[in-house]
Design goal:
The complex is a heterodimer of chains A (343) and B (511).
Chain A lengths: L1 H28 L6 H26 L7 H18 L4 H24 L5 H20 L12 H5 L1 E2 L2 E2 H19 L1 H11 L1 H6 L4 H27 L10 H11 L11 H20 L4 H20 L1 H15 L7 H8 L4
Antiparallel strand pairs in A: 1-2
Chain B lengths: L10 E10 L2 E11 L4 E5 L6 H8 L7 E6 L2 E2 L5 H6 L2 E4 L11 H5 L14 H12 L17 H14 L4 E5 L7 H16 L3 E5 L3 H7 L2 E6 L2 E7 L5 H9 L17 E10 L6 E6 L3 E5 L6 H8 L5 E8 L2 E3 L4 H6 L2 E4 L3 H4 L7 H6 L7 E2 L2 E2 L1 H14 L16 H14 L4 E5 L7 H16 L3 E5 L3 H7 L2 E6 L2 E7 L5 H9 L13
Parallel strand pairs in B: 3-8, 3-9, 6-7, 7-8, 13-20, 13-21, 16-19, 19-20
Antiparallel strand pairs in B: 1-2, 1-4, 4-5, 9-10, 11-12, 11-14, 14-15, 17-18, 21-22
The chains are: A mainly alpha (343), B alpha/beta (511).
Chain lengths: 343, 511
């Protein structure tokens, strides 16, 4: 479809180039990167962050920010471990309750930052602390191991030869793509992020729309928590540390504007992959964990900086895209004729 | 306070010209300010008053002409230079930091220091009292500015200007936000300042005040100086006539489409936001104009009818059905649309191209099943872009890149698309060029031809009177007078709106 091609030309190409650049640099520094085993590892590792990044993107598109996703990952993993291991709930029921928990926490974030009129940065900074504190409280600070033997297949299984986490990520990104592009609620998010006042005057329910982004973000973070719990078959209050930073980095590298209204979910996926590739490269080169955090921080600053000069950059990258896919728009004189009003 | 024609001018502006983007805002205006004299600068919106004082304040640089201070020519490249030459300007927007104290605000950026380079708070307090005392301003130097009333903040603003050792004080609508008693107090202060030898340039829409305080009056119209006369030679009516002037016959393509079915009936509507007991009726296909000064409450009436402000009293019926709007969404669903005054800040989505800007108010129409259909949106976009002769690039590019006129038409297209039956237009032609204005007039005719009713707010009185079927004059959130547009002239409208004349006749009913 023409519109989708245009989206790729104008918005997706930049993050894709960022990903390719990361891949090239990492492959040059180590020959252990481009192996099937390693790439599939990267794919598995990225799944949690990629899913949390969906939530981060939705909130950022609506003009807010969510810092609590890492804490929600920890709390859902801990609550899940307790429900399933200690209380003996069936895995499916436990997961359903965890998603509800995530939605509820997102609701609190959204409610306080819209109807409560507290900036979302502050609200989620506070709930980040509260939620992780709760995770420590209910576990007493000790991880809960070997939750259930039914959990691991949810992460390590495969379907039609594809690892399940990859399928989860693809399905969720496709759903989000459809939601943002083809539903009224998705359009409302862009409208609210683009111009809150104009949105209100156009009949968009601004608070409600923002609330939805936070509820969805909470749910996505809970999903990321469930995946982490399944991968490690355990729950620990130390899970998900830094997830919020990686998720926001993914969205921002993907071109989402922190001012709201600009960004798309496909680019976020490339952003998440870029973050994962960089981290993997640092791991393979045995860079200490502290330096990994520093690198991620630097990347975020770089990505936001690029966002500030976005206009000129996207012009240039779309020219690069033109080299591969020629434009099909009609030549200028043809559109000029349509321009003349009948007077 | 007598004028002293013999005293030499402090400031003399000679033949000042200034144009913006091809529009000549000042076409050679001369102006003089003398010590001890209060000089009122009058004119309708867009007559060039603000451009003139902004030249004097160093905000704009004249294209040609001379500015003489005590007979010596000066040029300003920056407001700070004007300030250094003793020009203090008090604009309508305050320049105070609300969280700081009175003293801190007055000495902002030039706090007295001790030898240790730390702020000398004692001196600052004493100095503040010394500034306030001769002005007979009773304010605590330690009071936080945001806790003061608007009037008191105004006084702080003036005190700050005075403390800068200024010789010329320019005041742009200083009483716009003040009540009667506060206005009186301010006018006394201004007289006192003049008596102390300051030159004062006073801009106000309220002629009664001007006649109370000014020594001399200069009237501007369309960038020309109409007259400069001592106030005692003038009557209020003369001034209004000069402000209105004889317009070069402008063609307004008005077509009357009113039919007798009432569209909107408002009865005793009041809001917490300054609308008091407003009643009127708009018929289907009628353009109902709201005239009045900036800040008279016209926009507040519009906000109320669009569900933006809470109603405290009154009844509103739309096509005979009683309605109560608690949100714009409810107003829109009932067929009301609003085109805000500030289309950039409140009207447009710069992250969207024209089609998504247009369809936002009625997205449900674009659904196929549960999903939006981008092809249909593009078609709707194309339809309205060609209907309103918006540039076709609007289909592909962000509306950020469109001209003001095209942007305005995109907002109009949004409400055509949403099939609004009552459209509120707040200053629809402000800041757009003549061609685009004509397009807006044609659109108004087209809309009323479709039976759509329009509530038109415009500070361009000739336009308001020409394009409306009936006009209501608003002052202090209340409708003073309703008349058929043809039976009201600009002079009467301005006279009622400015308080020079009260709406003597009782509001007439719909014709």
């Amino acid at each position: 479809m023409n519109g989708v091609a245009k989206l790729f030309r104008s918005q997706v190409i930049g993050p894709l180039l960022a990903l390719l650049l990361a891949v090239v640099i990492v492959s040059l520094t180590t020959n252990r990167f481009m192996t099937g085993q390693n790439l599939s590892n990267v794919m598995l590792q990225v799944s949690s962050v990629a899913i949390a990044a969906i939530g981060a993107t939705l909130v950022i598109l609506g003009g807010g920010i969510d810092l609590s996703s890492g804490a929600i990952v920890a709390l859902t993993a801990c609550v899940g471990a307790i429900l399933i291991k200690t209380n003996g709930l069936p895995v499916w029921l436990g997961i359903a309750l965890l998603l509800l928990l995530g939605a509820g926490l997102g609701f609190v974030n959204g409610f306080l930052s819209t109807y409560g009129r507290i900036p979302s940065f502050i609200v989620t900074l506070a709930t980040m602390g509260v939620i992780r504190g709760l995770a420590f409280l209910i576990t007493g600070g000790t991880p809960i191991m070997s939750v259930s033997k039914d959990l691991e297949p949810l992460f390590y299984g495969s379907f039609l030869g594809l690892p399940l986490p990859l399928i989860y990520v693809i399905v969720l990104y496709v759903l989000t793509f459809i939601f943002l592009r083809y539903t009224i609620a998705g359009r409302a998010i862009y409208a609210v992020g683009g111009n809150e006042s104009a949105a209100r005057l156009s009949g968009v329910r601004v608070n409600q729309t923002r609330l939805v982004t936070f509820v969805l973000a909470g749910t996505m973070s809970a999903l990321a928590g469930v995946l982490t719990m399944a991968r490690l078959n355990s729950g620990s209050p130390n899970y998900g540390v830094g997830t919020e930073l990686q998720a926001i980095a993914a969205a921002v590298i993907g071109g989402a504007s922190l001012a709201g209204g600009h960004g798309n979910i496909i680019s976020t996926l490339f952003g998440a992959l870029t973050v994962a590739v960089v981290q993997n490269g640092l791991n393979l080169n045995i860079v200490p964990a502290a330096w990994q955090d520093i690198t991620l921080g630097a990347i975020i600053v770089l990505a936001v900086g690029l966002d500030m000069w976005r206009a000129s950059i996207s012009q240039r990258t779309s020219k690069i895209f033109d080299l591969f896919v020629p434009r099909r728009s009609p030549p200028k004189p043809a559109s000029g004729e349509r321009m003349q009003p009948e007077r | 306070m007598m004028d002293t024609p013999t005293s030499p001018p402090l400031w003399e502006l000679r033949d000042i010209k200034k144009s913006f983007y091809g529009t000549q805002a000042l076409k050679g205006v001369s102006f003089t300010a003398r010590r001890g004299e209060i000089h009122a600068l009058l004119g309708e919106n867009g007559s060039g008053k603000s451009t003139l004082i902004k030249c004097l304040a160093g905000v704009h640089q004249p294209d040609s002409g001379e500015m003489l201070l005590n007979g010596r020519p000066v040029t300003f490249h920056h407001p700070m230079e004007a300030r250094a030459h003793g020009v203090a300007t008090i604009f309508q927007e305050f320049s105070l930091v609300p969280t700081l104290t009175v003293a801190e605000n007055i000495f902002l950026g030039r706090q007295p220091r001790r030898s240790t380079r730390l702020i000398d708070w004692d001196t600052m307090r004493v100095e503040t009292a010394r500034v306030l005392q001769p002005l007979e301003i009773q304010l605590d130097p330690e009071a936080i500015v945001k806790n003061l009333s608007v009037a008191e903040q105004q006084l702080v603003e003036i005190a700050k200007a005075i403390s800068l050792e200024s010789t010329l004080l320019i005041m742009d609508e200083p009483t716009a936000a003040l009540g009667l008693a506060e206005t009186e107090r301010l006018l006394r202060l201004i007289k006192r300042l003049a008596a102390q030898g300051k030159a004062v340039v006073y801009i106000s829409h309220r002629l009664d005040e001007v006649f109370e305080v000014a020594d001399i009056v200069t009237v501007l119209k369309d960038g020309n100086r109409i007259a400069t006369r001592p106030i005692h030679e003038l009557k209020m009516g003369d001034v209004v006539k000069m402000m209105v002037g004889v317009d070069i016959e402008q063609h307004y393509p008005k077509i009357h489409h009113t039919n007798p079915t009432p569209c909107l009936e408002v009865e005793g509507l009041s809001t917490a936001n300054g609308v008091h007991d407003v009643s009127f009726t708009i018929n289907a296909g009628e353009v109902f104009g709201l005239g009045g000064m900036v800040g008279s409450g016209r926009t507040e009436i519009a906000r109320a009818l669009f569900g933006l402000d809470r109603w405290t009293a009154g009844k509103v019926r739309l096509f005979g059905r009683e309605v109560q709007f608690k949100s714009p969404a409810e107003a829109i669903n009932n067929g009301v649309g609003l085109i805000p005054e500030n289309r950039k800040a409140d009207g447009l989505f710069f992250n969207f191209e024209a089609p998504r800007n247009i369809t936002i108010s009625r997205l449900a129409e674009m659904l196929r099943g549960p999903f939006l259909n981008p092809m249909r949106e593009m078609q709707a976009g194309q339809q309205y872009v060609s209907k309103l002769s918006i540039t076709p690039t609007a289909l592909e590019k962000s509306v950020k890149f469109l001209s003001g006129g095209n942007q305005q038409k995109v907002v109009i297209a949004r409400w055509l698309f949403s099939q609004a039956r009552l459209l509120i237009l707040d200053e629809p032609t402000q800041g757009i060029d003549v061609g685009a204005k004509l397009d807006v007039y044609h659109v108004i005719n087209e809309l009323t031809g479709l039976g759509i009713s329009i509530l038109l707010i415009s500070s361009d009185y000739p336009e308001l009177l020409a394009m409306s079927d009936r006009v209501a004059v608003v002052r202090d959130g209340h409708i003073l007078h309703i008349a058929e547009a043809g039976r009201l002239n600009e002079y009467e409208l301005l006279a009622i709106a400015s308080g020079a004349e009260t709406g003597s006749q009782p509001p007439t009913a719909a014709g």
